[in-house]
Each structure stands twice: as C-alpha cells, then as structure tokens.
Amino acid sequence: MIDRLPTGHGPQPVTPRRNAMELAIEVVTAFVGNNAINPRALPQLIRAVHETIDGLSPRVSQPPKPGLGETLTCRECGARLKVLRRHLLIKHGLLPEAYRARHGLADDYPMTAPAHSAERSRRSTRAQPSGWGVRPAARRKQH
Predict the structure, then answer these.
(1) Is residue 10 part of a domain?
(2) Which listed site, 60, 79, 120, 134, has its alpha carbon 20 to 30 Å from 25?
C-alpha cells in the first residue's frame, strides 16, 4: 500500500527538526494501519493532512537582534526591560557573564537596551557642557 514507512518504532518526539511532511506521513500511516482506505485516495489524504499540520505550526522567524528595540527580553522569565543587568541579579541571582553562558550568548551581548543607551548618551552629551554630570573637583578645574 505505502512504499516507505517512517523508520523507528512508535511515534517520534516532536522536535524543531521534524517538518510537517514527516508528521503528516506518521499520521497517515497510523490512520491507514487502522482503517481501510482506497489506495487512490491516499495522495489526497496525505496532502490534506500535510496542509492541516503545516497550517498549525507557527512560522519560525529569526529572533529580533539586540540593538533594534526599546527593550531587551529576559530569556529567564520573558520580562521586557531597558536594563537587564540589575533584573538578572535581583530576580534570578545571575551575573551577566553567567546569563550569557547559560543562554549561549556572545560576550558582547548588551545588558542595556540600545535605545536606552543612546538616550542616556544624548542626555549626558547635552548636560556636560553646563557642568551637569561632572564631579565637583573636575568642575572646579574647568574654570
């Protein structure tokens, strides 16, 4: 009836590497094993099951790159924050290095949202000429 059956015994675990066609073949194989079906209807059944499974699976998109948004998302709890460093220490007891290692992130993965860093930098640049943000001893040396 079917030329090739999926290899392995029993249902295979659903993993990101399994595609909709593999799942459709597994479902149709189980169905055909327990029900009588006209061999001519088999391609249409496979197609219908595949389309249904493919429609159910969420489309995997690239995660947003850090540096493009107003916030960073904590990979521990999903919180969206401007500054991740303090949150990690208080809520999860993690230092940035441990967090990066746990999630396989690069050593230069930001702990502050880029938009927040840019805003702080802009404010600092604007305030320093008037003496704001400069230590008192340094302010006296300027005069």
Answers:
(1) yes
(2) 60
